[in-house]
Amino acid sequence: MASEACDVCERSVRIAGGIGDLWNFAFESTQGLTLELTDGSEFFLCFDCMERLPDDHEPTAEDVADLRERTDPVDEDDNHFWHWG
Ligand SMILES: [Zn+2]
């Protein structure tokens, strides 16, 4: 089991095997994935941060940077809850 740091909240998240066969591994075992943006840039995001990206348009590097700006890096803490708004 590998782990990678989320590009937004910097939390270390577990990832299962290759990203290539995303649909072949259980979602419980992986907590983030690599997001490929339309401009070709790539970010590794945990699902928490992914959910916080705008869903009314394709996320851009700017959206990720903006989200990162609004997000405090968190320590390893599975009980962390986000404060919205
Ligand atoms: Zn994150």
Automatic annotation (TrEMBL):
Residues 57-73 have a biased composition (Basic and acidic residues). Residues 57-85 are annotated as: Disordered. It comes from the Archaea. Pfam families: DUF7561 (PF24442). InterPro entries: DUF7561 (IPR055983). This is Small CPxCG-related zinc finger protein. It comes from Halorubrum distributum JCM 9100.
